[in-house]
Amino acid sequence: MNMTEVIELVNTNRGTGQKENLNRMRLLMNKLGDPQDRLRVVHIAGTNGKGSVSAFLSSILSQAGIKAGVYTSPHLESINERIKVSGQMITDEEFIEATETVAPFVAQVEEETGERLYSFEILTAVALLHFAVSRCDLVILETGIGGRLDATNVVNTSEASIITSIGYDHMKVLGDTIEQITAEKSGIIKENGLVIFPEMSEEVDAVISRKAENVQADMIRVTPNHISSVSMTDTYSSFSYKEMDGLIIHLLGRHQITNAALAVEAAQVLEQRGFVITSDHIRKGLELAAWPGRMEKISEHPTILIDGAHNPEGVAALRENISYLFPDEQLIFVVGMMKDKAYEDMIEQILPFSEKILTVSPDPYRGFDAEGTADWLDAQGQESQAFKSVDELIVELKSQSYLNRKVIVFGSLYLIGDMRRLWKK
After folding, report:
1. How confident is the model at residue 171 (pLDDT cuts 50, 70, 90)?
2. How far apart are CA 99 and CA 2, in angstroms?
3. Handedness of CA 377, 381, 382, 386 (dihedral sign)
4. I need a labelling partner for 367 at 20 to 30 A (CA). Which of 161, 176, 311, 357 fits?
5. What does the CA dihedral 343, 345, 350, 352 come to, rounded to 10 degrees?
6. For residue range 256-291, what is the model confidence (pLDDT) as tens digits?
7. Reduced to 3 states, what is the DSSP secondary structure of residue 181?
């Protein structure tokens, strides 16, 4: 195999089986010798924040000298980003080797079941096999969509399950109500396990608590009164969490403080379970953590922040953050979203902060109509301008008129990845 063939298998639209259970995924893992059973896992689900919590926790583990595998999605620039060991992306050679091992068993499962495996199922198998072969001390495993029927839920036990947030996204798969979505994501809570989650709404907290009680799992809830002395700039945030004072993070936004607190709780649980993790490891790990494309500053002149907010909860967090960081300032926004999203509702959230909105489609087939969106904005009296490509957009942003402006780029991670990659050029 070569990387083109690998990507055709693990990153294309395929799969015909209904996701009514994990039997197909379990059959594939069984044929591989169940490598997931040889791993100690922290399992993470949530609408937003999974990647940030993974980044904080993996950075802490790195400071502690713990060999940690990290499985995240989606990627910004290269699919190799999704599978890391000790902070290093899986190499093409390792990716090919693991996929060549998995591929024959994919064919067997598909012949036996009469169903095609989804690409995410195959990629998850590749990742779990790679982590086992690499002899990781711990694996941070992020769900793709949901939790109960997510391919990653093939793991039977975990050191901790973390639920980062709950919001309205992927409703065709997860359900129409916040309770249904929460129930799906709570499916990662293991029998006699432990779940860590932030205080959310009464409805959400009740569903998580009920699930934990049903499987006799312990609960750790991060609440706002545990967080104090918050100070935020467009470069870093400082805060105190419980007895830990003066913590510093460079992932921007108030929501990232909560994500950092979830990682602190997970690190302390791991320390109780035999991993050598000190408060210094936690402090340094939080400060050094990076997660590209989430309130990330990629330019000083003009000031450009890129953020993969592409659902209502994510845009609400973005709105809260910019109102704190840039009070009473009118900003330039760049937006590009998929056409199946409620993008008009989300754009309306940022209109009070907007001087001008630049639109660009993140994908020629699935992206929204940039021209049509600009026309809709113009009809509301909002100055706007449509662009045919990110390259064309960047030429505009590098013109003299934007030199001292503040620009917020948000929407699809396809747009964020392109913006990050092409701006560096």
Report:
1. low
2. 10
3. positive
4. 176
5. 140
6. 999 999 999 999 999 999 999 999 999 999 999 998
7. helix
Tokens 């990716």 locate to 95
- The pLDDT tens digits of the residues spanning 319-333 come to 999 998 898 899 999
* DSSP state at residue 136: -
- Give the integer Cα–Cα distance in Å for 243 and 229: 12
pTM above 0.85, yes or no: yes
In Å, how far from its chain's centre is CA 332? Answer: 25
What are the structure tokens assigned to 290, written together? 């990076």
The three-class DSSP label of residue 163 is strand
Rounded distance between C-alpha atoms, residue 172 and residue 160, angstroms: 28
Tell me which H or E stretch contains 40. Answer: none
Identity of the amino acid at 150? D
Q: Which tokens belong to 57? A: 């926790």
Handedness of CA 239, 55, 252, 166 (dihedral sign): negative
Please state whether beta strands 83-85 and 68-71 pair in parallel, antiparallel, or not at all (unpaired). Answer: antiparallel
